[in-house]
Amino acid sequence: MSRIGKMPVKLADKAKIEIKDNLITVTGPKGTLQQAMVPEVSIDVNDGEVAVSRIDDSKRSKAMHGLYRVLVSNMVEGVTSGFSRKLLVNGVGFRAEKKSDFLALSLGFSHMIYFKAPENITIECPDPTSIVISGIDKALVGQVAAKIRSFRKPEPYRGKGIRYSDEYVRRKEGKAAGK
């Protein structure tokens, strides 16, 4: 039995969940999220808790059991409080700024990089060396953060590039002088 899958999801006071035609819809103060459901799991809602159970003990059912419990949990958390991810820009002359709908990045290339955020994602630059990505869909927030980080990944010698705020970049020693 999945340890994660058997735990019920507490439904926040402001969140409402609706299951219709293999579609899970969670609505809250920040917005609405939808997720298609697979036939291997069933979802029951009763008095403020959502329980996910599997139909049988097949390998796919066991895999989907924990997955759908976490997906429902993330949907409830997203529509009530939202998710955010912070990126740090390191390097001489490297900077990020918000220009209307675009994120403008100067990362040491011969050109500026302009990135347009997808719908339901907000990007803020509190200062030129930090970027905050926020939204209600956890997977989309993470995907956008990974895309922005991929423009200039942190390198191990000087630590230049874009990294997550909680990421540790292992530094390497430079070339030793020969005798």
Tell me the CATH superfamily of the largest domain: Ribosomal protein L6
User: Regarding CATH, which class of the largest domain?
Assistant: Alpha Beta
Average pLDDT reading: 92
Briefly note the CATH topology name of the largest domain: Outer Surface Protein A, domain 3
Class inferred from helices and paired strands: alpha+beta
CATH architecture of the largest domain: Alpha-Beta Complex
Quaternary class: single chain
N to C succession of SSEs: EEEEEEHEEEEEEHE
Number of strands: 13
Largest sheet: 4 strands, antiparallel
Shape: elongated
Radius of gyration (CA) equals 21 Å
Portion in helices: 10-25%
